[in-house]
Write a structure and sequence with these properties.
Elements lengths: L3 H15 L16 H16 L3 E4 L5 E5 L8 E7 L12 H16 L7 E7 L12 H7 L17 H8 L16 E9 L4 H4 L4 E7 L1 E10 L3 E2 L11 H18 L3 E4 L3 E4 L5 E2 L2 E10 L2 H22 L2 E10 L2 E2 L2 H13 L6 E4 L4 H5 L5 E6 L15 H23 L4
């Protein structure tokens, strides 16, 4: 008999244990290919073994465990998330999605429950991109999208990605061996804290993800004319900072008037940046996201048109450089349906919501169907020591995952649910 509350308490304790593995003593900070990464993999590998799984670490440093099917040539259902953190991060972002399926599988193993597919749990080594500046390195290794240009990426100490792999016991040249064969993958499931306030606002412990938002990012530089704050008349100024102020408000206005689109100016740099100097050059960032790429791009076009209008009116120059582009990833209809049923079977009203944050599922979607389950997080706080979830919510999470796996199994074998 499965006991989801015992599993939930175990998951919470193990997240606490992983939260103590950090390269900084004052906060949680665990980055890719460090000795702390290796230590976390080792701890997770031990829990996988205790759960009755076979374990291995791939060439990219991802930690794997397999709960074997009744026959060796069975397809595989992959469940996972990431084990790395941001600097000064929280204990549940990523880790919950690795630990939860392990504790559930331990109960499957105890009760000798078998499935017509292998259940492979993966703890990705890098999702956040905090060490080498490029995100999803762990999951991209599985999809065969590892880029040669990443060889020379360096961290803050000047250590290259290639050298870090060697120190970890692998090599850049060996990454190809981590690539998966799509033909035998049923799908990829990911559990993650919501990183937003919707579930908490609606008093729901869990929710099902509809899609992961596609994002575009830009660096914009506005060039005017610096001058003395006391001597240049107001009507003769070409103030870059004032122009940017209008542009930032235009971003807010256009995004607020659209549905399901968010846009953010999160970084600004001003020069000369003197208290008595008119701004001559101001740079700022733009991040725009939506689960509907066409809606995002329509709002983006309106924003960029507004920028041009403001620049022309104020007689200043503007330079726009795109730095990132990722299309939205929509969760698989069948897997999402399995999860919706799983949530309902757990006694929770199914709530479908988008993810504004990126996840390993974005990379995995290029080789297999994906679906995601969100767990309520207090205040929507994430990437912060204040991340907080409850045992009760984790219990609902594990129960919904259990029912979802059963539903996938029934669908795979053609049984009625």
């Amino acid at each position: 008999m499965l006991d989801f509350e015992i599993a939930a308490e175990e998951i919470m304790a193990r997240c606490e244990a992983l939260g103590n593995i950090s390269q900084q003593s004052t906060c949680l900070d665990r980055r890719y290919l460090t000795k702390e990464h290796k230590q976390a993999n080792s701890l997770v590998s031990g829990w996988m073994t205790e759960a009755g799984m076979t374990t291995w670490q791939d060439a990219a440093g991802n930690q794997w465990g397999r709960y074997n099917a009744s026959h060796a040539n069975a397809p595989r259902l992959i469940i996972g998330s990431h084990l790395d953190t941001v600097p000064n991060g929280g204990k549940y972002d990523g880790m919950l999605g690795v630990i939860a399926p392990i504790s559930l599988i331990a109960q499957f193993s105890r009760d000798q429950v078998q499935f017509p597919f292998h259940i492979d749990v993966v703890g990705f080594g890098d999702e956040e991109g905090t060490r080498f500046g490029s995100t999803l390195l762990g999951s991209f290794a599985l999809t065969g999208e590892w880029k040669e240009s990443w060889r020379d990426l360096t961290d803050e100490q000047g250590i290259s990605l290639a050298d870090a792999l060697v120190s970890f016991g692998s090599s850049f040249e060996n990454i190809e061996s981590a690539t998966l064969t799509p033909e035998n993958i049923l799908g990829y499931l990911e559990i993650h804290i919501e990183q937003g306030p919707i579930l908490e606002n609606e008093n729901l412990p869990i929710g099902i993800v509809s899609a992961i938002a596609g994002a575009k990012r830009f660096n914009i530089t506005v060039t005017g004319m610096a001058g003395h704050a006391g001597t240049v008349p107001m009507e003769m100024r070409h103030d870059a900072l004032c122009a940017v102020s209008e542009m930032i408000l235009a971003v807010e206005t256009h995004a607020s008037s659209a549905r399901d689109v968010v846009a953010t100016v999160g970084k600004i740099e001003n020069a000369p940046n003197g208290v008595n100097v008119i701004s001559g050059r101001t740079s700022f960032s733009l991040d725009i996201r939506s689960e509907q790429d066409d809606k995002r791009d329509k709002v983006l076009a309106d924003i960029l048109q507004a920028f041009d209008t403001i620049a022309e009116k104020r007689n200043i120059a503007i330079d726009i450089q795109q730095t990132h582009s990722a299309d939205a990833v929509h969760c698989d209809t069948q897997l999402k349906s399995d999860m919706i049923d799983g949530v309902a079977q757990s006694g929770v009203s199914p709530r479908i919501l988008p993810s504004g944050a990126g996840h390993d599922a974005m990379a995995m979607a290029s080789i297999c169907p994906v679906a995601m389950l969100f767990t309520r997080c207090k205040g929507g706080i994430s990437h912060h020591p204040g991340e907080s979830i409850t045992v009760d919510d984790v219990r609902y999470t594990v129960e919904a995952l259990h029912h979802s796996i059963i539903n996938i199994g029934k669908r795979h074998t053609g049984e009625s649910a």
